[in-house]
Hints:
Arc Repressor Mutant, subunit A, Four Helix Bundle (Hemerythrin (Met), subunit A), transcription regulation, GntR domain protein
Amino acid sequence: MSSSTLVAADHAYTSTKARIVSGELAGGTLLSEAQVGAELGVSRTPVHEAFLRLADEQLLELIPRRGAVVRPITPTEAADVLAMRRGIENASAEQVFTRGGVDADLRQRLAASLERQQTLVGSGDAGAFAEADDEFHALMIEASANPIARHFYAQLSGRQQRLRNVWLRIDPDNLAAAHADHEQLAAHLIGGDRSAFTSVLAAHFDKYQGAL
């Protein structure tokens, strides 16, 4: 595959994934390689490669001679993603507590993330808040200094962002609720309160589970 085709395939992948994750392309939407290629100004070959990558991430289901369908988020998938996130984030927090806490640089970055979230709560921008939400949880995992935890969290990126975008749009008050949870999580992580952190994190994920 030529370098230009690789670049086009990456563009098709990034663009289509963003539309799926944001909810613009809802579950059940039928996509054709020709249609997506025309929209992006590329041939079908790079779009086909992009579809293969998205199918591997279980965001698309390939249909021979027709294209692909955006996979709906099932209750089982939502539960599985949240269970994995709960395990990764609790394990990461435990490493932070064991190692002696959060350093000054990360404290500042967590504070900046919370401030940005507060601004987005005021504006009601659910899409931007979903990005800030992801950044916040990624920072908590980064605090563990565990590259394996960061790797597995990144592997869940597309699926968990889909869940966030759905949940945050169900009720405008969910933005404020998520921000309030994040404030508590940051305080307990920095303060070294294992029990409180675990309790708030469980309640945070239960809100997703109950709504989805």
